[in-house]
Amino acid sequence: MALVFDLSGRTACVTGASSGLGRVAANALAAAGARVVGVARRQSELDDWRREAGGETASVAADLADRGRFDATIEAIIAPFGAPDILVSAAGINTRQPADEVTPANWDLTLDLNLRVPFFLAQAFAPVMKQRQWGRIVNFASLQSRRAFASGIAYGASKGGVEQMTRAMAEAWSKDGINANALAPGFFPTELTKAVFADAARVDALARQTCIGRNGRPEDLVGPLLFLCSDASAYVTGQVLFVDGGFTAK
């Protein structure tokens, strides 16, 4: 049964691979046998990731929100191993502005990186996935896809959009062998949540909100990710899997 999680011979693209849960995802896919192209803004961090991951990896240093360079970034992703079979869109931003202080520039940046970029990456790679009759798209949703958090209106709007976009991707492409799903992590220690985890009282309160009684650890994401990226999820599409210790169950 372990073979259904084996990704040998597959090629994956992971955005946000230089840090946080994107790095966890990129490492997990490489360990499962996939050739992995990691995309992020910082080349030095991508170099660190490649040393850590081992296996067959390549990196593309790019600002995905730069529309003028988007086509060139697509070409750079394809160059090392060909078009990917697996797309994991983990790159994201949360400006954490109260609703009364949200600026048009930050709204646009949040929606661009969190919502527009995952769609147009998937659109770019879908034709080859269709030819192969096999593809896996894993978007990163959030607790804020369903819950409203303070100073999260732009981020929440983008992640609510990710949930619906994932269903729409499944409707559009699953008949061609491309399964589209999303992971919605609970509270994990990452760069995006650094401010949260700096507050011990808040960290404890969040842990108590879960059914399990603790916040997430990087290894908690690996199993769900490999499930959605492999043959194990052959009959699963258009779904959002909350990896949150039961936070949304309470």
UniProtKB/TrEMBL annotation:
<dbReference type="GO" id="GO:0030497">
    <property type="term" value="P:fatty acid elongation"/>
</dbReference>
<protein>
    <submittedName>
        <fullName>Gluconate 5-dehydrogenase</fullName>
    </submittedName>
</protein>
<dbReference type="InterPro" id="IPR002347">
    <property type="entry name" value="SDR_fam"/>
</dbReference>
<comment type="similarity">
    <text>Belongs to the short-chain dehydrogenases/reductases (SDR) family.</text>
</comment>
<dbReference type="Pfam" id="PF13561">
    <property type="entry name" value="adh_short_C2"/>
</dbReference>
<dbReference type="InterPro" id="IPR036291">
    <property type="entry name" value="NAD(P)-bd_dom_sf"/>
</dbReference>
<dbReference type="GO" id="GO:0016616">
    <property type="term" value="F:oxidoreductase activity, acting on the CH-OH group of donors, NAD or NADP as acceptor"/>
</dbReference>
<dbReference type="InterPro" id="IPR020904">
    <property type="entry name" value="Sc_DH/Rdtase_CS"/>
</dbReference>
